[in-house]
């Protein structure tokens, strides 16, 4: 009887090692997903900060809201139209803002940021959209904020 059970301890040890290895691999995969989600959250937070930053700038410069228009047409994340390239003083915040966006968010460019200023009754509606693309992903992400500003 003892002879027929001779390798059972070795077999149990191999199964235990297999289960432990699967658990360790699952933890490594969980860590990788956690890091990816943390990086995505950082980019989303940066995009939110940048969009709200230009809206705040527009609140302080209410008399020149139409001048902030930047790539006001086209589909999402493939904007068309003209950039804010006027040599006037109010364009400096837009060009500086676009530079800041392209520095902080990967895969962003001047034509992947949009500022649309439209009339809504006696107020102006401002929509700021920021697009970026993570280096490891094929699709783009976007963040948009809309505000109504009384001129």
What does this protein structure show overall?
With 151 residues, the chain is α+β, with helices and mostly antiparallel strands. The chain has helices spanning 8-60, 91-104; strands at 113-120, 123-132, 141-149. The termini are far apart. Strand 1 and strand 2 form a beta hairpin. A three-stranded antiparallel sheet has the order 1-2-3, covered by helices on one side.
Beta strands, count: 3
Please provide the ordered H/E string of secondary-structure elements.
HHEEE
The average pLDDT score comes to: 88
Q: Please estimate the helix content.
A: 40-55%
* Biggest sheet, spatial arrangement of strands: 1-2-3
Shape, please?
Answer: rod-shaped
SSE layout and pairings?
Elements: H1 8-60, H2 91-104, E1 113-120, E2 123-132, E3 141-149
Helix pairs in contact: 1-2
Task: From the structure above, extract its key features.
alpha+beta; 3-stranded antiparallel sheet
């Amino acid at each position: 009887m003892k002879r027929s059970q001779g390798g059972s301890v070795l077999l149990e040890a191999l199964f235990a090692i297999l289960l432990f290895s699967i658990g360790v691999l699952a933890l490594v995969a969980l860590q990788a997903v956690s890091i990816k989600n943390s990086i995505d959250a950082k980019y989303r937070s940066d995009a939110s900060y940048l969009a709200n930053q230009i809206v705040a700038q527009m609140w302080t410069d209410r008399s020149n809201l139409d001048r902030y228009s930047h790539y006001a047409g086209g589909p999402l994340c493939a904007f068309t139209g003209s950039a804010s390239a006027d040599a006037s003083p109010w364009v400096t915040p837009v060009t500086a803002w676009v530079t800041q966006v392209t520095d902080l968010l990967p895969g962003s460019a001047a034509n992947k940021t949009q500022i649309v200023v439209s009339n809504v009754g006696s107020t102006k509606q401002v929509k700021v959209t920021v697009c970026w693309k993570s280096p490891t992903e094929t699709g783009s992400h976007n963040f948009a904020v809309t505000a109504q500003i009384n001129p």
